[in-house]
Amino acid sequence: MTAATTAADPESAHRGLVTMSVMLATIMQALDTTIANVALPHMQGTMGATQDQISWVLTSYIVAAAIFMPLTGFLTARWGRKRIFMWAVVGFTMASMLCGAAQSLNQIVLFRLLQGVFGASLVPLSQAVLLDTYPRERHGSAMAMWGVGVMVGPILGPSLGGWLTEYYNWRWVFYINLPFGLLAWFGLAAFVHETPIDRSRRFDLLGFGLLSLSIGALQMMLDRGESLDWFASPEVIAEAILACMALYLFIAHMFTHEHPFIEPGLFKDRNFSVGLLFIFIVGVILLATMALLPPFMQNLMGYPVIDVGYLLAPRGVGTMIAMMAVGKLSGKVDVRHMILLGLVLTSLSLWEMTLFNMDVDGWDIVRTGITQGLGLGFIFVPLSTITFATLAPRYRNEGTALFSLMRNLGSSIGISVVITYLAQRAQANHAAFADYINPFNLALRQAVEAGTYNLTTPEGLAAINGEVTRQAATLAYLQDFRLMMWITLAAIPLIVLLRAPVKQAAASGTHAAID
User: Fold this and answer.
1) Residues 105-117: tens digit of each pLDDT
2) Which helix (H) or strand (E) covers residue 389, if one does?
3) Measured between alpha carbons, how far is 512 from 24 in angstroms, rounded to an integer?
4) Which residues of 331-355 are buried (b: 16+ CB within 10 A; e: fewer)?
5) Cα 283-288-292 angle, rounded to 5 deg
6) Does residue 480 or residue 49 have the better pLDDT?
7) CA angle (350, 356, 358) in 5-degree steps
8) What is the 3-class SS of 131-188, one letter each residue?
9) How far apart are CA 215 and CA 242, in angstroms?
10) Based on the number of CB atoms within 10 Å of its own CB, is 369 exposed (0-12), middle (13-18) or buried (19 or more)?
């Protein structure tokens, strides 16, 4: 019996400890995708950097993680999953400590780059380990536990980051990874089995280079597009052309090379291919909302940053409740029905958010956040289960890496789209509202007569322009929520393309694992 078979044995004595170990690694990496965001102004002051310069603290991590994530499959096949997993935890933890101790902008950008390199494989490897540790009939429960870290981490990251920055120091945003990293490493070393090693597998340098170039150029375009006015900038045009050309060459190379970087056989599985498209849409919704609500609450509603964190935290509670429910329902309810329920709940919450105004109270934000958290939880876990339900076990390491990559790309593209759409709609709304500022507007005349506004002084004109700007921005946020609602509803037809797992598929998967 091989080590992989032992790991997949339903009678495994250390299943709970394996789960705890990989969950620690998952939470550590997932938190770091958003925990540093709220600490950026404090880092900027310490480093004496401009707004554009300090943004590289986030960009370097995102780009490095995106480029190196597809490398997970090759590394684990060549050197073993357990060994790569342990080195990734060590590297990520040490890079976190270096980020906390950084004394200059160049240092922290370099160390964040290293963090992204080592952290790229943590989430896909944790998913692959759990899929092999639990029998196929318990994959739903396993993915529910794994999903807690992946989904709740980014949601709670800003709250935890704001609390640490407010009451301690921004450096603790990185130092907090030390206990997670130590416990995860000891757990992996003691309880996770090594997988078979394929020394004959060759590294497709050209394929990796083309894919890395495409992903890196895309991430740079998304990160810098808003500040450079998108395609009005030669840099953004060059990055877009580079990303498209490199992707085209990579796809052509993948289907013609004898030993491609990513095996085309992965995409012959319909559930896996549809699941990649689905998780891309989930990525758009997951972090795009989190990118919009904090500025909406701080800039328009006047909430302090610490209160914003508290009001957004229940979103994670809703996700955890949904994931626990999915774990109980797994094997009893068709996963496609749970995905449909999740899409409906998410669409409902976004529709309610289109009714927000500047007088909306905290309970409305909490209530819609819990509803959206429930919806995302009912989508993410069943989707993670059905995506890999019919995929051959030998593809799992590469498959989980691509699954995480598509979620991250969805988040990056989603954030760029909603922020750009917000700016465009705010400008268009301001121009439309300004047309109503004229002597024939009865409501404006009454406001002037009541002394609310004085249109004969610069101060009075500035006051009414400020009100028009606030109302235009508020409507722009609501239009963004509506856009995400339509994107969510557009994903519903994809459900019919997913095939429910059948016993025959499970049996063949078991035989493949034993072989």
Assistant:
1) 888 889 988 998 8
2) none
3) 29
4) eeeebbebbbbbbebbbbbbebbbe
5) 165
6) 480
7) 150
8) HHHCCHHHHHHHHHHHHHHHHHHHHHHHHHHHHHHHHCCCCHHHHCHHHHHHHHHHHH
9) 10
10) buried
Q: Report d(CA 118, CA 84) in Å as an integer.
A: 10
CA 439 to CA 446: how far, in whole Å? 11
d(CA 28, CA 126) in angstroms, rounded, equals: 12
User: Tokens 């012959």 appear where?
Assistant: 268
Q: Is pLDDT at 515 greater than 70 in this prediction?
A: no
DSSP 40-89: HHHHHHHHT--HHHHTHHHHHHHHHHHHHGGGHHHHHHHH-HHHHHHHHH
pLDDT over 60 (residue 10): no
Tell me the C-alpha distance between 203 and 198, whole Å.
12
The token pair at 249 is: 């060459």
Sequential DSSP letters for 245-289:
HHHHHHHHHHHH-SS-SS-GGGGGSHHHHHHHHHHHHHHHHHHHH
Q: Which amino acid is at 56?
A: W
What pLDDT is stored for residue 9 in this prediction? 46
- Residues 317/373, Cβ–Cβ less than 8 Å: yes
Alpha carbon separation from 109 to 41, 59, 100 (Å, rounded)? 15, 9, 11
Task: Give the mean pLDDT of 260-268.
Answer: 84
Q: Tell me which H or E stretch contains 355.
A: none
The better pLDDT of the pair 444, 334 is held by 334
pLDDT of residue 452: 67
Task: Show the tokens assigned to 306.
Answer: 């610490």
CB proximity list for 430: less than 8 A, separation 6 or greater: 468, 469, 472
In the predicted structure, residue 346 carries a pLDDT above the cut 70: yes
Side chain identity at residue 266, one-letter code: L
277-298 burial: b if 16+ Cβ within 10 Å, else e: ebbbbbbbbbbbbbbbbbebbe
The whole-number pLDDT of residue 451 equals 66
**What confidence tens digit (pLDDT) does each residue in 158-196 have?**
777 777 777 787 888 888 889 889 998 998 888 888 888
pLDDT digits (tens, 9 = 90+) for 117-135: 898 888 888 888 888 888 7
pLDDT at site 456: 66
